[in-house]
Every structure is written in C-alpha cells, then in structure tokens.
Design brief:
cell membrane; transmembrane helix; transferrin receptor activity; Transcription Elongation Factor S-II, Chain A; 20 strands; about 40% helix; Transferrin receptor protein 1; seven-stranded mixed β-sheet; 3 domains; Glucose Oxidase, domain 1; alpha/beta; palmitate
C-alpha cells in the first residue's frame, strides 16, 4: 500500500510528470455543463502565453474561462492511454492486497446467535467445519468394537489409589495419549488417607453377643472405641432426624444404625453428628440391595473433597503446611457393617415404633440396646499420579474444556472407573484422528484427564484444582465428568451448571440410542422434569463447580429410579454391569461418549460459547422471592424483633442488576460486529466469569470449600438464608438477627459483583445495570 501511495503521489503531484485536470462546472444560468480537460503540457503553454501562474484562467467578470475545444494530438492520446492503464493496475493491486489481507486475518464471525442454533462461517485462523460433519466424524470413529477393546485393556481385579496396579493403568493411559500424538504430562501428589489396619481389625459387639469384624471400612472416620445405645435412623437424612426429634427421641450419645443410599456416607455421618450421636453404622438394607448378606461396603466420610489434611492447599511433595484438618472431617466413629450383621441387631431392638413415613417394621431401639464400636483405621501416605493429554486449539489455545474420569477403584470398579477411563481414551483417539486426518480444527483446546484417588473423595482432581486454581478459573470454561456413566439402560440423568442447560438440551436431541434420540427416549415430559437432577456433593464434578467456579456437568445411564447397587463393593464387575444393562454396555458407552463428545466439541467448535446466562437469573429470582416472603412473615409475626431492620431491598436490587447485565450481554452479542477475534475472546471471557463470580469471596475456602452461593454448601448460600428466618418465625431464642443481616449483606455483594463483572468495563456500570 505504501508503494501504491508513493506511485500515485508521484503521478499526480510530482513535477517531472504530466497530469490531467478535470473541471466540471454547472452553468448557473441554465446552460448545459461543459467540460475542461487540460494536459499539463498544454497548460504550461497557456501559462506562458498569458503570463500568469494560475491554473484556472478567469475572465474579467470572475467566471471561469471554459476551453471550448480539446486538441486530440498523438502526444495527448499517448498520455491518456498511459494514465488509464496505470490507474487500472493500481486499482487491481489495491483490490488484491485487500482481499489477501481478509483471507489471512483471523476472523471471529459469530457462529451463533445467543443461545440459538449455530450458523457457521469460515475463518482464516481455523476453518469452520460444518457442525453436521463434525457429528458424523465423531460417530464414525467412536464405535462399540473400539470400546470393547478398551474395556479389556483397562479392566483390573484391583487398582486401589496409589497401588502398583493404579500406576500401571496410569502409564497405559499415558502411552495411549502419546500414541495419539497429544501433548502429554503428569501431575504427582502426595496425599494422606485412612486405610483399614493391616495387622488388626475394626469390630462391633451388640450387647454381650459375639464380636463382629467387618472387612469394609469408611476412610477418614474418627478412631477409637466406645459403647452407646443403638438407635435406628432410616437413611440418616436431615428429614429422618427431624422426625425422631419430633417424637422426642433422645439422640445424645447414641450409635445410629442407618441404611446405605440416597445420600453419601459423609452426609449421613455429618447429620448424625449434629444430633450429638457418638457413632454411625451404615448397612445395605435388603429392600435396596439384592446382593448377598455378607457383602462389605467401602467408602469415605469426609464432607468435602480432596486431601482433608491439606484443605484448600495442593498436596505437592515440596509444600510444607502446619498441621491442619478439613472442617469436613467427622468427630465421631463411622463404620460399615454387612446386611447379616445389621439384621441380627435390628431384630433384637426394643423401644418405640419408628415414624410411619419410614414404613419399617423394626423398633427404634432402647437405651439398653448397647453396641460397642471400635475403629482402628490407620493414616497412610500415598503417591498418586494424574495423567493429562491435550489437543490444542487453533485460535484460543489457552482456553480449554476438560474431560475427566477416575482411574482407581476399591475393587474391580468396572462401572465406577473402567467404563469412564475407556470412553475418555477413545474420545481422545477419535478427536485426535479428526484433527490429524479429517481437517477438523478446534478453536479452543480439549484436555483429557485421568484422575487417581477418586474413591477417597475426588482427591486427585481436587488437588489439581487447588494447585492451579488461579489459572484454571480463568482458562478452563467447562468440566465434563465421565465417572459412572453407564449403570443401567432404562433411564438417563444429567446434573450440571445452569449455564450448560442449553448445550445439554441440544445434545439430548442430537445423540441417538437404539434409533431414538435421548430426549425422545427418556424425556417425554420434558428433559428438565425427567432427566435433570441436582448435583450431589460426592459427584466428582462438584468441586469443579462449587469450589473452583468452573461450569461442570455429570451424567449417566441408569436403571430407572434405582441406583446401581454395586458401587463401593467388590462386586462391581463387568458381569454385574452386563446384567444391569442386558448386555448393552458397549452400545450405551458409545451413546455416553457421543453425548460428552458432542458437548465438548460444540464448546470448541463455535466462535462463541453457547452458555445460557439467563438460567441463573431464574434461580436467583426464585431464591430472592422465597427469602422476601419469609422476611415479611417474620416482620408480621415478630414486629418488635424486626421493626424495620429486616429488609431484602438490596438483595432484590442486586438480582435486578444481574438480570439487566445478562440481558445486556446477550444484546451485545447480537448487535456487535464480531468479525474480530479479540471481541470474540472478550465476550467469551465475560461469559466465563459468571460461574467464578458466584463464589463468595467473604468466606475461607479452608473452612467452607464449596463457596458457590447458589449451588454450594454452607450458611453463605441463598438457600441457607431461609433457615434463620424459619428460626425467627417460630421464636427460637438462639436465632441471631445480626448474623442473618450479615449473611444477606454478603450474598447481596456477591451477586452485585457478578453483575458488575458481567457488565464489562467498570466505567459503564451505572449506565449498564
């Protein structure tokens, strides 16, 4: 362009060259327009003849002198032809340069309207493959025979975390990623867990009966020995303990007998501890579990995730921290017992009848029904290895979606870990092949992670999060959990961040199983009614969502309303899963891989992240409405206690701010010129801040790790704000007004901060929200 400008300047302004002047004037008195066209050589001649240096000769009355006739000499015609040819060449060069620049420049045209189906456009940085072609390629490469081979390769009778078998499987995953041409690395952590005693045993004794020695155990239980009166407490849920309290049952120092299922062992123990129980015995009831009565259960009781002895910190070998424990570690004994042991105890219990809601036939237990519990678990240090592989993006390589699966298990763990690991490796192979051989170019990166110590409470994944939290929260925009994805064939369940609901819905409509889409097969009354469920604390995706603020999801094929009964046992084998799926493990694993793969590929294929910001608006408003109604009830019932102090006005305003900010961002996406990679990146970064900014910055991650105010756990959540209001409503003397006002203020500031971040530049906040 500089050369072109120089040439043009020399042509039109340089003295050595001739130039042509056009003069178009309109006769003000109605005459037709006349044209003056002079070449410089003629004009020079005229100037010399008239003795003036003006290019425009004027008559005495000031009007321009019009040359009436143009002399077509050979010299003039030669100049005209040369000038026309030169102008044509220059125009052609300018057009070529402009077109070439448009081809080379990385363009980020919008591939989607906000939360609608995408319409792709080619870019120079990463040619956009048609979405239908992407789906077809994945379907061609992810097949049942390939998964069958992976099942055989990654099946082990035993591969407990930190064992030689676990490390060997990790090396297999590493070699597979290397074979696929991926960038690979490992992450070592040195963790502390609890294992059963090597030389001794845990035991229970009912009254003066024989000593029972269960092989199963619950890691992280308090150790020691005690004797207390037995008390049956159904599943050990909060509602179960409320029913016992309503019956005025004394729960102090009792040994709780609770059924396995519905909630995690850690939640059961935490609920019992709130009732001042001394110990918890968990057993598989025959109405929920149809396996033999001698089957042992394994698990953990840390109400949290990660290494509980380095809460909030990574367990790297070189890190040194003062002795500290997670607030989620129980202060009471916890142990599993077999069905046969529990049956012998339940049959002998006296005392009152249980609540009618339980439908139980045994008694609750008398003060004389004593049980001695002895737990001798030993702390054990283990080295665990996480294995990673990455397919790098072609535009925003430093932004990535993570797919992960645990590699370890208490026993065979076929449903718990083998299926997930196999699908992880096969997805890595399929997508790598699409990039290498089929021309697929993801805009963002895809990270594949194989975790260890998942059975101890997602330890490997959480330690990685803790070690790289500051960078991960800025760059990882989604986590997809592949643990336990096939446990049956009659149902399908999904738990995930509201930001991912639109992606999930689209994938349900696109992925097929047995000839029908997953939506048609399992969501006849609507996917949110039949398929969507709340993410539980023991889900491996939960720390990504509630601790790190990364939009996360988990899913699984199920056996209708029943949970897979072999998790946490030595019976989780391929034969048992075959029976639960009617021999369709491979086909169901293919559908599960397609579901996870399509969501991941959509997130790295489109120019803009398809995340539904308005979903959180609905959740915030729902919670705020409930809190406001309860606050007004308290004001009416306790006017002296709350004359004017209790108000949720600012919380309502913060809710409105988020609503406006999310609507404005959706409008920005629609109205902005997105043929700009930086603008695309900026908008995506604004979307990525939403989940992270719902983490309360006003509480300690060591004391309360799950800081998400909408989906987390603790007194800081919007859901928990209703509890003190209920206490005030019934006149509970322990209700603390100042504590409630402080909690509501911090929740308000968190929501307002999220709205501010979503709005963009801080100098525009007043105008935006």
């Amino acid at each position: 362009m500089d050369q072109a400008r120089s040439t043009i300047s020399k042509i039109f302004n340089g003295e050595p060259h001739s130039y042509t002047r056009f003069n178009l004037t309109q006769n003000m008195e109605g005459d037709n327009s006349q044209v003056e066209m002079k070449l410089s050589s003629d004009m020079d001649e005229e100037v010399r003849e008239n003795g003036t240096g003006d290019h425009l000769n004027h008559t005495s009355n000031g009007r321009p002198h019009i040359v009436q006739r143009f002399k077509r000499t050979p010299k003039n015609l030669c100049f005209m032809a040369a000038t026309a040819l030169l102008v044509f060449i220059i125009g052609y060069l300018i057009g070529y340069v402009a077109h070439r620049k448009r081809d080379v420049a990385p363009v980020c045209a919008p591939s989607v309207r906000p939360f609608e189906e995408a319409v792709g456009r080619e870019t120079g940085a990463a040619p956009l493959m048609d979405w239908d072609d992407v789906k077809k390629l994945l379907a061609q490469k992810l097949t049942a025979p390939k998964l069958d081979g992976a099942f055989r390769e990654f099946s082990k009778v035993s591969h407990r975390a930190g064992s030689a078998e676990d490390e060997m499987l990790g090396d297999k995953v590493f070699q597979k990623f290397k074979e696929f041409g991926m960038k690979i690395w490992t992450d070592e952590h040195f963790i502390k867990v609890q294992d059963p005693p090597v030389s001794g045993f845990n035991k229970i004794v009912y009254k003066n009966g024989p000593e029972e020695r269960p092989k199963g155990f619950l890691s992280y239980s308090k150790t020691g020995s005690l004797t207390g009166a037995a008390l049956y407490a159904s599943y050990g849920q909060e509602g179960d303990f409320r029913l016992l309290r309503d019956k005025s049952v004394n729960m102090n120092g009792r040994v709780m007998l609770v059924r396995a299922g519905k909630i995690s062992p850690a939640e059961k123990v935490a609920n019992a501890a709130k009732m001042n129980a001394s110990a918890v015995l968990i057993y598989p009831d025959p109405t929920d579990y149809s396996f033999g009565d001698q089957t042992d259960l394994y698990g953990h009781v840390h109400l949290g995730s990660g290494d509980p002895y380095t809460p909030g910190f990574p367990s790297f070998n070189h890190t040194q921290f003062p002795p500290v424990e997670s607030s989620g570690l129980p202060q009471i004994l916890a142990q599993t017992i077999t069905q046969a042991m529990a049956t012998r105890i339940l049959r002998q219990l006296g005392g009152e009848n249980p609540p009618e809601e339980w439908g139980s036939y045994n008694k609750l237990g008398h003060e004389n029904d004593t049980i001695t519990v002895e737990v001798n678990n030993v702390p054990t240090e283990k080295k665990i290895i996480n294995v990673f592989g990455v397919i790098k993006g072609f535009v925003d390589a430093d932004r990535y979606v993570v797919l992960g699966a645990q590699r370890d298990s208490w026993g065979p763990g076929f449903a718990a870990s083998t299926v997930g690991t196999s699908v992880l490796v096969e997805l890595a192979r399929s997508i790598s092949d699409m990039v290498k051989n089929d021309g697929f170019k993801p805009r963002r990166s895809i990270v594949f992670a194989s975790w260890s110590a998942g059975e101890y409470g997602s330890v490997g994944a959480t330690e990685w999060l803790e070690g790289y939290l500051s960078s991960l929260s800025m760059k990882a925009f989604t986590y997809i959990n592949l643990d336990g994805i096939v446990t049956g064939r009659n149902g399908f369940k999904v738990a995930g961040s509201p930001l991912l609901h639109t992606l999930i819905k689209n994938a349900l409509n696109e992925v097929k199983n047995n000839g029908n889409s997953l939506a048609k097969q399992f969501a006849r009354s609507g996917w949110e009614t039949n398929i969507l469920e709340t993410m539980k604390m023991d889900n491996a995706a939960y720390p990504f969502l509630a601790f790190s603020g990364i939009p996360s999801m988990s899913f699984r094929f199920t056996s209708g309303n029943k949970d897979y009964q072999y998790f946490g046992t030595m019976l989780d084998t391929q034969e048992k899963l075959n029976a639960a799926t009617s021999g369709q493990i491979s086909q169901l694993a293919v559908a599960a891989g397609q579901f996870a793969g399509q969501i991941a590929l959509r997130l790295v294929h489109d120019h803009l992240l398809q995340m539904d910001l308005m979903k959180y608006n609905e959740i915030i408003r729902s919670n705020v409405v409930k809190i406001n109604l309860k606050a007004k009830q308290v004001q009416r019932m306790q006017p002296k206690l709350f004359p004017k102090a209790l108000t949720v006005q600012w919380l309502i305003r913060a809710s409105g701010s988020y609503s406006r900010a999310s609507s404005n961002l959706a409008r920005d996406i629609e109205n902005s010129n997105l043929d700009d990679i930086e603008m695309c990146r900026t908008i995506n970064d604004r979307i990525m801040t939403v989940e992270r900014n719902f983490l309360s910055p006003y509480i300690s991650p060591r004391e309360t790790p799950f800081r998400h105010i909408l989906l987390g756990s603790g007194s800081h959540t919007l859901k928990a704000l209703a509890s003190p209001l209920d206490a005030h409503r019934i006149g509970n003397p322990d209700a603390d007004t100042n504590l409630f006002l402080n909690q509501i203020a911090l929740a308000t500031l968190t929501i307002q901060g999220c709205a501010n971040s979503l709005a963009g530049d801080f100098w525009a906040l007043n105008d935006e929200i």
